[in-house]
Design a protein that fits this description.
The structure is a single chain. By secondary structure, the chain is of the alpha+beta class. It has two domains: about 70 residues, no CATH class; about 210 residues, no CATH class. The chain has a four-stranded mixed sheet with strand order 4-5-1-6, with no helix packed on it. The chain has a two-stranded antiparallel sheet with strand order 2-3. α5 packs across α12 and α6 packs antiparallel against α12. It is globular and about 65 Å long. The model has no long low-confidence stretch (mean pLDDT about 95). Bound molecules: iron/sulfur cluster (SF4). The site of iron/sulfur cluster (SF4) has 10 residues, from α5. The site of iron/sulfur cluster has 10 residues, from α5.
Length: about 350
């Protein structure tokens, strides 16, 4: 099997107890079918403990969250399940995280989720050093299964080429929020529906930016991203969310114009406090494309995926700016932490996209 690995992949090393936001903080830990069966048949007190700590909600089996998150997360900031029984008793997601392993049948791609602060730090380091996010190709065996139902190799090869061209556009100076990406997405999606030839992203060069105003931002924020339970699940992100609410919620209700002026002032903070801020957002979008654009292979939703990346990058700078506002500078470690906690919650934005239009 051809394995394509993102350039920062091999540099990753878990920082263990020194990690500021350990893997299981801020979300439910799903348990895969194979491990679930193992837990159900495990004998003795250990088996009873495991079964007591499992819950099933909306067809997803996971560990019950305590106020501290995963019940196996110890006071030493390490996983007690791993310490006691090794990785063979850990859910697959815990063993793999933050590695994102995608088997498309024809080849595999291995990348890192930025929801891990160490992965986010590697991303920031590469972005600051102008190192492009490229795939290194090797051959080998993989033990993870094909995770797509599509077998249209021609379409997959088209997506690979389109992704390269989209990243080329970013390299050529088109901003991550340019309308060119959305126009390409709309036309590609229509071409899929009408079974006409798919366009090349390079035909598109509209430099007008997608307008992301405060009303849209609130739609995304309040339709899934924010939840009061973040107070215990992800206290650091919760504090940023409270700042967000204080800054924009009431103000936007009273005067959308005033809220948009506050947003513009915050954007100025972001540009002032974060070196090469435009480049950082473009690199963030490029990384998003490298890790998520091939999701279109499964659902053909060009528009949704391209807009999601733009919305995600926009919300990210808002959170960074809220953090930076009262500080004279922000370190790489602080930025990595913001990115990591934000990424854990960002999938919720995808559902909220239906409330805004491209
Ligand atoms: S989030 Fe990343 S660095 Fe932190 S404990 Fe998990 S794998 Fe290690």
């Amino acid at each position: 099997m051809q394995i394509r690995r993102i350039s920062i992949y091999e540099d990753f090393q878990c920082t263990g107890a020194a990690c500021p936001v350990s893997c299981c903080r801020g979300w439910r830990v799903p348990i895969d079918e194979e491990m679930y069966k193992k837990y159900l048949t495990e004998k003795g007190i250990f088996g009873t403990v495991l079964r007591c700590l499992i819950e099933k909600k909306d067809d997803i089996v996971s560990f019950r969250n305590t106020v501290r998150g995963c019940p196996f997360w110890g006071t030493d900031r390490l996983c007690s399940l791993q310490k006691k029984s090794g990785t063979q008793y850990m859910p697959l997601v815990c063993v793999q995280f933050p590695r994102q392993l995608c088997n498309f049948g024809f080849f595999c791609e291995e990348t890192l989720y930025l929801a891990c602060p160490e992965a986010a730090r590697l991303f920031l380091k590469a972005a600051a050093g102008n190192q492009p996010f490229v795939f290194h190709v090797t051959e080998g065996e993989v033990r993870y299964e094909v995770n797509t139902t599509n077998d249209d190799e021609e379409f997959l090869r088209y997506l690979l080429q389109a992704r390269t061209e989209l990243i080329q556009m970013l390299d050529d100076g088109i901003s991550f929020d340019s309308m060119a990406f959305l126009q390409y997405g709309r036309d590609a999606q229509n071409a899929c529906l009408s079974r006409t030839p798919l366009p090349s992203p390079l035909y598109y060069n509209d430099k007008n930016r997608y307008i992301f105003d405060c009303t849209m931002m609130n739609q995304l924020f309040f339709n899934g991203f924010y939840h009061p339970s973040l107070k215990t699940l992800s206290p650091f992100l919760y504090r940023l969310c409270r700042k967000y609410i204080k800054s924009f919620c009431g103000l936007n209700r009273r005067s959308p114009d005033a809220a948009n002026r506050r947003l513009a002032a915050l954007e100025a903070v972001f540009r002032q406090k974060i070196p090469d801020s435009d480049k950082l957002l473009n690199q963030y979008y490029a990384y998003y494309l490298q890790t998520s654009f091939l999701d279109i292979f499964e659902d053909y939703s060009f528009s949704k995926h391209l807009l999601f990346g733009i919305a995600k990058a926009n919300m990210l700078w808002v959170f960074i700016a809220l953090y930076a506002e009262k500080r004279s500078f922000v370190t790489t470690e602080e930025l990595a932490r913001i990115i990591a906690v934000y990424e854990r919650r960002a999938p919720q934005l995808e559902d909220a996209l239906k409330h805004i239009t491209a």
